[in-house]
Records
---
Amino acid sequence: MVSPVPLPATPQRTNTASQVAKEMNFPGSDINIGALRKSLPPIVFEKSLALSMFYAVADVTVLAALFQAYRVYLHAAPVWGAAHWAAYVVWANVVGFTMWSLFVVGHDCGHGSFSDVKSLNAVVGHLSHGFLLVPFWPWARSHAQHHAYHNHKDKDMSHVWSTPAEEGNGGKLLKDQPLLIPFAYTFGYLIAGWTDGSHYVPWSKLFRNNRERVQCVISSGVCLAFLGAIRYAAGSWSAFGAGYFVPWCIYNTWLYGVTYLQHHSEGTQVYSNENWTFTTGAVQTVDRVYGFGLLDKLMHNITDGHVVHHLFYTSIPHYRLMDATPVVAESLGKAYRKVEGFPIIEFIKSHVKFSRPHLKWLPEQRIWKMFKQNELKQE
C-alpha cells in the first residue's frame, strides 16, 4: 500500500484542537457532550437484559427456521426447477440480511451496551459473531478505536481515509468496481488485515499486548470451530456453499455497505490531530433511513440511529436509539446529517471508478472533505 501523504506543515499554534475547531466553526465543535447527555430521557441509558436477550434470541430463531426450511424444501429436493431457484434467491437474501441483524446484536456486546455483565457480553458476542466468522474480541478492539477516533485521518479504523494519491493498488481495486464487496470485509479486512492488521493472527499489528493476543487466539478459535461445525453439518462442500457461503456473502455485503454509507457521503469532513475532536468527528456520521416499513427496525436501528450511537456508543443499546434520536437531532440543528431512501444506487456509484467520491485536502480549512468527481473537475 502506498504510504500516506505527509500532512502539510502546520503553523505553530498554542491552541488546542477543540479551540481550533471552534475557531473554524466546524460542525459539532460547539457540542457539550455532558449537557447533551443530560438533555436525553434517562430511560435511553437503561440496559435491559430481557430486551437484549429477546432480540438475540429472535434473530437466532429466525435463522434456525430459515435453515430448517432450506433443509426440508430445498436441500432435500433431488432436482431444482425454476420455482426452487426463485425460492433460493429469496431465501439466501433473507438469511444474509438476518445474519447482518445478528451481527448488530453482537455489536452491542462489543460496546458493552448489551448488558452490564462483561462475561455475558463476551459469551453472546462470541456466539453471534463466531457464527459469522468475525473474531469477537479483536473486532471489538478495532471497532472501539473506530468509535474513539471517528473521522480522524490517521487514527480511525475500518474504512480507511485516503485521497486518490494515497490509495494503494488494493484500495483502488476495491473502490473502482463493486465486485469484491461481498469478500472485502472478512477476507480483506479481518483475515488479511488491510489496513489495520489481521484480526485472526495474534502477532498482527492490531494487538498491543499479550492479553489481546491471547484473546485473538480464543476468538479466532471460536470462529474456526463454527466453520468446522457448519461444514460438518452441511455434509458436502456444495451444500456448504449453497446453504451457508452464499447467504454469508450477502451478509458481508450488507455489513460493508451499511457501515460505508454511515460514514461516507458528499461533504463528509475528515480531521487531523490539529483540529479533530470527538464531537466534530461524531457528527460526520450519517443517519440513513432505508425505509420499506420495518427494514430499519429489523436492522436494530443501527442505520437511522447511528448519530446517537456514535455520540453514546457504550451506554445506549440499540433498542433505545430511536428514543434519543429526535432529541439529539434537534440539539445538533444543522450539524445533524440524515439521508432518506434505500441507497443502492448511491452505494454502487460509490464503488465505480468514474463516479465514486474522492477525498480532497483543503489547505485553507486544514481538513479533508469528500467531493463528487464532477465537482472536482469544475474547479
---
Amino acid sequence: MTSLGARVVLAASNTARKLGQALDAAGKSMEVVKHRDRLVPSTRFVAVDGVSPTVSPLAAFVAPSASVIGDVTLGQNSSVWYGATVRGDVHKITIGENTIVGDRAVIHVAKIQGDFPSVIGDNVTIGPGAIVHAATLEDNAVVGPSAQVLDGAVVGKNAVVGPGAVVTPGTKVKEGEYWLGSPAKMVRKVTAEELQAATETAADVLELARMHAVECDKDLEQLTKDEEAYEDATTRDPEYWQPGQAKDLEDVLGQGSPGLIFDSVLTNPEEGLKFNQAKKKKAAAAAQESTTRPSFWIRLSSKSPFWITSWYRAFFQSGRFVSTTPPNLSIFAVNLPAAMKRLS
C-alpha cells in the first residue's frame, strides 16, 4: 500500500501534466500558421540516395558551415571553407589533392541539360564566391573570386580565370592563359610570378586550414580548458612558477605545486620572505651600478650658463669634483646620479 505522501505527489503530477497539455492545446488553437520546432541536423556531410561523400582522412579542413553532399570525393590536403557547397546529387564531383574551395564557393553538376560531372584536379584554387558548374579544372588552375565556370567548360593547366569572369558553357581555356570579362576572353599569358604567387598562397592556405581544423574539432571541455589557460597566463605573476616550466617545484602546504592561490605571503610566509629578499638584492645591485658608472668631465668658466654654474656650486659643496685649474676655469669629474639626487 502506497503512502499518503506518494499519492499526493502522484496526484499533483497528473494535475500538472493535464494543465500543461491544456495550455499547449490552447496555444495551438491560436496559431495562424502551424509550426513545429525541429532539431536541424548538420549539413556538413550529407548522403543522397544512399551515397555519402568520400573524404580523405588526410583532408586538411572541411568547415562546420560547409556542405559536402552526395557523390563527392575529396583528396588529401584539400580544404572546403566556410559557407561553401559541394553538391554531387545528380552526378559525381571529384576534387584532387591540395585543392582549395574558398568561402561561399559553389561546385555543382549537370544531368538534366547535358550530362557533365565536375572534375577538379590537384593544386587548384577556387576563390571565394566562385561557381564551378559541371566543369573541369585541370591541375594548378586558378578560378578567381566570384568567377563562374559553366557547363562543359574546361580550364587547362596553370590557367587563370580572373575575378568576376564568366567562362561560358563548352569553352576551352588553354594551358597557361589568363581570361577576363563576361563572357570571358583571353587577355594574356600567365606570368611566372603569378604562378609562383599561386603556389605560395596555396601553401599558406594549407597551413591555415590545418589550424582551423584543430580549433573547430575542439569540444566544450577543451574550449573551457583553453579559456582557463588564457586567463591564467594573463593574470599569473612572472615571479611565480609557470606551467610551461620543465622542472616541477616542491609541494607547498600539501596543495601541489605553487600557484596563484597557495604560493602567497599569507599561506606561505617563507616564500614571501624570499620574494622580498630578491627585490632588495635587485635594488642594491641597481644602486651599486649607479655609483660605479664612469664619471664625465665638465669645463666651467666665468661665462658658463646659469644651470652649469648651479651644478658647479652643488658639487663644490659636496666635494664631488677634482680641480686642475684656477677657480675661474675648473675642470672636474661629475658623478651624474649623485648630482641629480643632490640637486633634487
